[in-house]
Amino acid sequence: MTRKSKDFSFVNGLNLAWIEFGRDTGVDPVNPQKYFRPDMVRFEEAMDFACEHGATLIRWWYHTNGSTNPVFDAHKKVTPNPDFFHEDVKKILDLAQQKKLQVQICLWSFDMLKKQWGVDPIANKKLITEDTFTQAYIENALVPLVKYIGNHSALFAWEIFNEPEGMTNKYAQHWPGFEERVEMKDIQKFINRVAGAIRKTEPQVKITNGALGFLTNVDDPKKGFYNAYSDANLFDKGKNDLGYLDFYNIHYYSWARSKGSPFHTKYSPKLIDKPAIIGEYYPDDLSFKYKVGDNDHKLDIFPASDLGTILIENQWAGSIAWSWTDRKSKEERNRMASIIHNVAESMVQTSHVGNEVVEDIKIYPNPAKEVMHITGVKKGEEIIIYDFTGKIVKKKRVRNTPEKILISELYRGYYRVMVVGRIQLSLYKE
Fold this sequence. Notes:
Blueprint: E1 11-17, E2 26-27, E3 35-36, H1 40-53, E4 57-64, H2 83-98, E5 102-109, H3 121-129, H4 131-149, E6 155-162, H5 169-172, H6 184-201, E7 207-211, H7 231-238, E8 248-251, E9 276-280, E10 286-292, E11 296-302, H8 307-313, E12 318-321, H9 330-350, E13 356-358, E14 361-364, E15 371-375, E16 382-386, E17 392-397, E18 403-406, E19 413-419, E20 423-429
Parallel strand pairs: 1-4, 1-12, 4-5, 5-6, 6-7, 7-8, 8-9, 9-12
Antiparallel strand pairs: 2-3, 10-11, 13-14, 14-15, 15-18, 16-17, 16-19, 19-20
Helix pairs in contact: 1-2, 2-4, 3-4, 4-6, 6-7, 8-9
């Protein structure tokens, strides 16, 4: 049975995705006495950029390719984490908390099986495919980190893989640089076991996975698409009841053409059984030319600045543009900024800025920064505020009319305000 996910408001994010690829926190595999620590000045620069333009989330990679993190022994098994691994992750989350941002932490990327500096593809393949090696990773690296971080308020979700399909011959035989390959069944089993371990350790956190595209995350046989990450498919391979995802992250690049494009396709719960964020796409103008009938051709042009708002219109759960580190020119950064800004503006508008009035109930100001007022409510009624994952972040029993609610501690973003038994309103917190 598919577990129903909580409602999402739209997630407006930016891929970091790293400051130093595979070396934001780790141990030098050549010189174990040398440690890599996060450059917090550059992390803050990226977070300030995100905040300035209205983002609510950044996506950051942790192990990445396994070159410096986790640490392996002589038998290619993961050994206990150095304490500073945990401290560094918390330091990044604490900084995000100060900025009223949240962080989606991606654990692994397909790069883990490539020939790259410091990478042991054989050890990483064993980690994915062999039970005792997977368990060593879970016990020595994953669970201690998850316990240490807990349900940190700046943690949006743990993401298990970035595009794991890239490690398979089925979907990416043409991708260069790989020393080893795995099969989709190995990936599904690993996701199931890792998700189960995270959820058992910290039941309140959210878990996701970054899919290559519609190809592997949409149930649409007519187009050749298949949801490898459904609850049933993950359980079938790993047998862990807790090993399911709370929502999906689906990536889009031009190789998928219009057939696999979230900019052409509306989200459909019949084809995708959970909310799906578009977790990667280039901040570039998109154009598609394709045949319509025998002689006619159609040209679709999507300006970069409109990409995020198109995803809103198509009812996807979020937009995370690629990427702060990868796109450094002024023009590229400006395009990222315009995407994030326009999403933020659009969400303010859909939150009925200018004060929403329903059944004589009004919330103001909207957007609000420190305090929200609500009129038209009755003494004794309960007001509940939910965040974008459906989590209750504030409850208050009405004592005065109008009622005043302090919201200064909430993160920037979009919230649902419910007057229990009567109505639900929208609020944007600046």
